[in-house]
Structures are given as structure tokens and as C-alpha cells.
Amino acid sequence: MGTKLGRAPSNEGELNKILQKLYSNVKENQKLNKANNFTGLLEIIESEANIVTAIHKIKSNKGSKTSGVDNKIIRDYLDKNYEDVIIEVQAKLHNYKPSNVKRVWIPKPGKTEKRPLGIPTIIDRIIQECVRNVIEPILEAQMFQHSYGFRPMRSADMAVSRIKYILFQTNCNWAVEGDIKGFFDNINHNVLIQSLWNRGIRDKRVLKIIKLMLKAGVMNEMATSELGTPQGGIISPLLANVYLDNFDRYMSREWENKKVRKKYSRDDGRISSMRLTTNLKQCYLIRYADDWVILTDSRENAEKT
């Protein structure tokens, strides 16, 4: 049996209680080994309280003065009649069709090479933030413990601290590091949507909106996007983490949580069927966005990964 929400919060305080409840429900389901099944999410997403929260968040972001293809910035919406803005956002959510994103190129940190960003319009950013704010508690509660990029209360410094802790507390002194080249440009939309469904986002209206966000085209380019999530979109880091969570869980299952069994042989004419079973951790994964490090206890294990 699923959890149907549907009732819109009347204020931001009530909204926060709903978001906290979503998070705690997922954690409780994990303890009971129950599947997550949340419907009625769109009513929360399109609520006045959530739209106001989204606008406040975007206003505080340094990108609020950067326009999309329509040349509007957040001030253009703040200067509008309050009720008109709410109605405009709600109307667009009910018949969502994102505008093209504006392509800009920015230098990669510490490099001369540049990477592309796709800048959505302000109205699309508001809608992305509305969606992100509601689905994030459901997804965050299920994320791999040691991924640190673009998550609430996580940082690159925490990833470094985790690495230092493992180096000092274990004998895992061999490291394998890498990055997933072109990751953001190669996310399979269908796989991502299925991952959201599997994690409990069961409101098909919301999944349809997210899929349309992913397909937003680029100004002056003919084709819409069939792969990837636009770097520059508010919701993109969350969706990328959901996609990579499968990688995290695979590595954790294969290495961190793998059982080590040892059979005892014949001893003094007696046969012992005893087995030593432990949760001996041979390998530790730390991920920050599309960069990852695996720490292990031997060169042999490092080469296996």
C-alpha cells in the first residue's frame, strides 16, 4: 500500500513538516524492508507555499541575475503581482513544456578547458526547484552513505576527511581513482526515470515533468536531448546522484559488504563444518559527483577493481 499525499500545505511551516515526514517515512520503510510508494506529489509541488520557497531559494542564488533564452532575471518576477506569479507557475506545471536552455561555456576549475552549461529560463528554474524540493527528501533518505557531491550537509571536505579516516584506521593503503568521462551528457533518461520509480516516486505526472526537463533542447540547435541531464539545471545534480547511486550500491555490495567465508578442514580425525563469516571490508568507495576513489588493502584488490 502506498502513501498518497495530495493535500497542499497552507504555509511554509506545514510544507517543511511534510518534507520531513517524507524523509522519515522512507527511513521507516527501510527498517521494515518495505517498498516506497509516494503518489499525490504534484499537489505539494504546485502549492503556493512550495512555489514561494522555490522563489526565495533562487533569489538567494548568485545565478538569479543570469537570464535564460527569454532574457528575464529573477527581479522581473519579483516585480510582478504576487498572485500572478503563483498562477503562472501553476499553469505551466499543468501543461509543462520547458523552454530551450541557453548554452554558455565556463572554464573547468584549474584548467583552460571549458565545459558547457545549459541555463534554463527563470520560470523553468522555479519549476525545477519546486520539483527538487519535494522529491529530494524521498531520494536523499536512500542515497549511499559515502557520496558527497551536491547533497545537503555534504561537502568535498567531508569526502577528504572520510579518505583520511580510512587511511588511519584501516590497512587500506592502496587507492584507485577515476572519473566518469562525459557522465552528465550520457545519462539514459529511461533508466533514470525507472530509478526514480523504483525509489518511490510513483506520481506519473511528476515523472512526466522530469522527463520533459531532461529533454529540453539548446537554443539554436535543432535536436532535443535524448541523453544526459543539462549541467546548469537546478535539478540536474540530484538526478545525477540518483543515477550514480546504482554504481555506489554495486561497489558497496561487491566489496564493502561482501561476506568472507572460511571452511575449516579435517582436524585430528574430526570434520568441522564450522564457517567463519565476517563483514570484513576489503574495499571502501568514496564518491564526489562523477569523481571517485576506492581504497583497498592490497595491490591485487586494487587491480581487480
TrEMBL record:
Pfam families attached to this UniProt entry: RVT_1
Enzyme Commission number: 2.7.7.49
Domain Reverse transcriptase: 87-305
A molecular-function term among this protein's GO annotations: RNA-directed DNA polymerase activity
Bilayer-crossing regions: none
Keywords: Nucleotidyltransferase, RNA-directed DNA polymerase, Transferase
Cross-referenced InterPro entries: DNA/RNA_pol_sf (IPR043502), GrpII_Intron_Splice-Mob/Def (IPR051083), RT_dom (IPR000477)
Name by which UniProt lists this protein: RNA-directed DNA polymerase
